[in-house]
Records
---
Amino acid sequence: MTTTATATKQFMTSDQLLEDWQGHRNLTRRVIEAFPEKELFEFSIAGMRPFSKMALELISIGGPALKGIVESNTEAHDEESFHPKTKEEILKKWDEETEVINHYFSLITEERFQETFNLFGQYEFPVYQNILYFIDNEVHHRGQGYVYLRALGIEPPFFWERF
Amino acid sequence: MTTTATATKQFMTSDQLLEDWQGHRNLTRRVIEAFPEKELFEFSIAGMRPFSKMALELISIGGPALKGIVESNTEAHDEESFHPKTKEEILKKWDEETEVINHYFSLITEERFQETFNLFGQYEFPVYQNILYFIDNEVHHRGQGYVYLRALGIEPPFFWERF
């Protein structure tokens, strides 16, 4: 790749990354909201997880991962301890995690973004790559949620509306 | 948001962003490859586009958008002039665009990433936001491609394998 000449250019600041991520999280919140209560927990295509399970995966990653990075704690993440029975419970937790993410993200230094960390005792990558992965993973699963909504005859929110 | 304190931190360099993007493009290429020839052009869920159309959208954005940014050309993008009939034609074009992206991306300066540009005469945002959008849009549609593959009984490539 012809990237040598670009090695020292900043692509974006950390506050710009956080704003982008929280914009994605707002959109994912609207996708959760768009599902009817029952289908959020039950609807599936081809044996894939219902969208509630994907949302729980995202909840178990973002905030807990940043906390782990800041505290240099490599404990495994916990997808099992939160068992919401309603959409409202998921959305409430989602909003709590918004603040957790803002708090811990702001504590990560510029140098730290470049340091390798064994996230959850399993994902040993530079911190910035781990954070990009959280966002990509969210966009990936949300894209699947869009197909579920279409298959349910529901118009998904606009992909470009983030705030 | 509690982002004030982070305003001057670099999140990542432009070469790191390009490497991440090309890793995503490698994975999307494998998703294109995973479709049987016929289903790539015809299979759909709930009236959505077949994956070939999504791939053509991606091809019409990345390279042409960077060229537009570098040349300050706000012409609309062209999703209509390339009409591949086979998977092989799509993959060939995909690989050509890999080089186009590397070339034009390397010509964007650090200052330019922060400047607002009216991409394709339609999307007026800072250049870094436009570029993030290309990647997000790709991850979004590829996630939909994963559902198509599952519905076809085909195991998609691992999400985390990029190179």
---
Amino acid sequence: MKVRVLIRPKPGILDPQGKAIERALPALGFEGIEEVRVGRLVELEADGADLEALCERLLANTLIEDFEIVRFADRTDPA
Amino acid sequence: MKVRVLIRPKPGILDPQGKAIERALPALGFEGIEEVRVGRLVELEADGADLEALCERLLANTLIEDFEIVRFADRTDPA
């Protein structure tokens, strides 16, 4: 089963990468973009593993990050 | 409009973060997980900006990364 994990900084947690992107936008001519938040994307093939435990123990820092697990039915690429 | 950008290492490009996760799994007791790939997740509010250009020029390194843009109809959190 293909699994996608979305990991984001928790609301209220400072996101320096997002702020850096926001500051770079005007010089590149982009307007109308705000609230940029940068997180991590982890995609994997899982067969029966405890994905919540995987996220809490290895993939995410739950003090400062939230995670969301999206499961896909088969191995075809959902993208 | 809320926008989610998924940025992944291109197929065939070495992904050291993914390999590091795979190597850490057995010691933590996780089995049945493979093909781990780590990318970036960027979420933002966009109003009329050219998102393809934004990804190509700022968010992704298109030499080694693919990107996917997902648009959501309104400001409610799709997660």
